[in-house]
């Protein structure tokens, strides 16, 4: 079975001077609680053969575990203690671990480029900041600062319990009541809904790399938008499958890249549609021109055959993913935490099936408008990238 505790605390809720505190707390909760030391937590999970983990996003944090059915009560007790009553022991030592993670991340342009794109698309808005934080902000965080942030965000009304597998729902509710005390009157902090105006910038970061790493993207659908399923269909046709336009045109036909794909990210009040490609200096110019050509003709690519193929692909991927208790737990927890309806697999399949060619074309016009897109690049020399970003406002880091 899979068990998760979802917390309404993510990087977009952080003030600039606390950038990375949500991710830092994600680490620190494994270092001990009021009842269990870090050693206790480690060996109790190991004794169960369980797999604990945690992750931080821009809008939430999840602490979760896979365990045997008979170990639910002990796993729940451990996760609840970690989330609700951490002691923030070994803070300075764990800070060094996180700083090493930041250094590793900054050495990986294939990861950094996606945050660079978010910064290009959203500018100074919190959605444009890296989840992991920055060395200078993490270095200033002390126990008092971290504790105050935890006290404000890790509150009863801002925590969702989700589980999937062979679950006794009544037992789960009893465990939640047992380990989380009522907090009447507590206000769950929410993100400021104000968003920046669409940008049209080209950002370049000079780094001695073997490949140019390039992302292009712009504002996408919100998590609750009805047309998000049409956007998923478009994304699949564009670069979300082996038969997609980008994979075929850039990789299969011309050999200009090993990795090229598109993706769509949903947030509460906006989203992002994006494309990634990694290509060598001698090929990046051609690769980007092909990508721009594909994007320019994307609406015409929304044919009945293409839309049907994308619908079938999405339905198959949805059903296969739901064979995992972890995936079901993720879907449940995310929906409840963000106030979205909990859709059954049949509901999701029906919404995918309902997407028409006209819906897909309308989504292209709304979310894949290059005039509202920005782009980011990491590479050794700006020249090949700059040659194909005429008309974008230029930003060099």
Helices and strands, with pairings:
Elements: E1 2-7, H1 21-28, H2 38-48, E2 51-56, E3 61-66, H3 72-84, H4 91-106, H5 109-122, H6 135-138, H7 143-153, E4 159-164, H8 169-179, E5 201-206, E6 212-220, H9 228-239, H10 245-252, E7 259-266, E8 271-279, H11 281-296, H12 304-321, H13 325-337, H14 345-353, H15 357-367, E9 374-379, H16 383-386, E10 393-396
Parallel strand pairs: 5-9, 5-10
Antiparallel strand pairs: 1-3, 1-4, 2-3, 6-8, 6-9, 7-8
Helix pairs in contact: 9-12, 9-15, 10-11, 12-14
Order of helices and strands: EHHEEHHHHHEHEEHHEEHHHHHEHE
Which sheet architecture does the biggest sheet show? 6 strands, mixed
Query: Mean pLDDT, rounded to whole units?
Result: 95
- How large is the radius of gyration? 22 Å
How many beta-strand segments?
10
Q: What's the quaternary structure here?
A: single chain
Shape: globular
Query: What is the CATH homology-level superfamily of the largest domain?
Result: Metalloenzyme, LuxS/M16 peptidase-like
CATH-derived topology of the largest domain: Cytochrome Bc1 Complex, Chain A, domain 1
Distance between the termini: 46 Å
Sequence of strands across the biggest β-sheet? 7-8-6-9-5-10
Helix proportion of residues, in percent? 40-55%
What would CATH call the architecture of the largest domain?
Answer: 2-Layer Sandwich
CATH class annotation of the largest domain: Alpha Beta
User: Count the helices. How many?
Assistant: 16
β-strand percent reads 15-25%
Secondary structural class: alpha+beta
Q: How many structural domains are formed by the residues?
A: 2
Uncertain regions spanning at least 5 consecutive residues: none
